[in-house]
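Sequence, please.
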């Protein structure tokens, strides 16, 4: 059966690989992002099964409009993947409340908004897959990413509770936690920080496999959670990090 999916942050990196991967399984995919050029490139690579969906996850009206657009074109969202994210490497004491609010608004509240918009139709239809992208930073901590780590920790805790609330309706909710991964977001973080390259190299050395991950490797885990085969798997957190986190 062909499912309707929506991937936030689908313009590049992990989100792009997830969108392409879902399309390869036969899903119709709304590529949701504030970066319309990148979203267009992703949707074009998918073909007729891809749809560019403008979305700013920090605005409830934008999220609502995006979900309505996907529903109009492809039908109700059955697979929701929250991949939109943002961060800058900074010591916590060098940050301020504006920074905290932006990190939390994008990485945590953005996920709340999309789930709030998509979950009711999943419950009504008796089938749904919600996959939220966390981070190994939330599981083990990460220097210069205190607020981001906290926000992603919230993603994990929220998803576990959501999974309990919607399980009886045939809806699952799981988290995939990447370790350091070769994405434009990581490149931007490195470029914006005086110590970025040093920190990223240290992260790679800390990984037992001694390298950073590739977006397609993270996407593979998401595709499993979004599949029919994962119907009895919910409330789980899976790290894709070369062994950085083992639990």
């Amino acid at each position: 059966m062909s499912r309707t999916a929506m991937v936030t942050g689908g313009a590049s990196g992990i989100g792009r690989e997830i969108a392409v991967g879902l399309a390869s399984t036969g899903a119709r995919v709304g590529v949701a992002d504030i970066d319309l050029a990148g979203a267009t490139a992703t949707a074009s690579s998918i073909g007729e099964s891809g749809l560019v969906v403008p979305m700013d996850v920090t605005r409830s009206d934008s999220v609502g409009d995006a979900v309505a657009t996907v529903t109009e074109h492809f039908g109700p969202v059955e697979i929701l993947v929250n991949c939109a994210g943002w961060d800058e490497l900074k010591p916590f004491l060098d940050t301020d409340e504006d920074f905290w609010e932006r990190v939390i608004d994008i990485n945590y509240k953005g996920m709340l908004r999309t789930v709030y918009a998509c979950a009711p139709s999943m419950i009504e239809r008796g089938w749904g897959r919600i996959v939220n992208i966390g981070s190994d930073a939330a599981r083990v901590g990460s220097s210069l990413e205190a607020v981001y780590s906290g926000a992603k920790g919230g993603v994990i805790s929220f998803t576990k509770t959501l999974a309990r609330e919607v399980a009886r309706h045939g809806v699952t909710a799981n988290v995939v936690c990447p370790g350091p991964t070769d994405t434009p977001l990581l490149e931007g973080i490195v470029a914006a920080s005086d110590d970025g390259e040093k920190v990223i190299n240290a992260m790679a050395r800390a990984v037992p496999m001694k390298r950073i991950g590739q977006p397609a490797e993270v996407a593979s885990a998401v595709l499993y959670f979004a599949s029919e085969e994962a119907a009895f798997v919910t409330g789980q957190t899976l790290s894709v990090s070369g062994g950085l986190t083992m639990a």
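The domain at 4-240 is CATH 3.40.50.720 (Rossmann fold).
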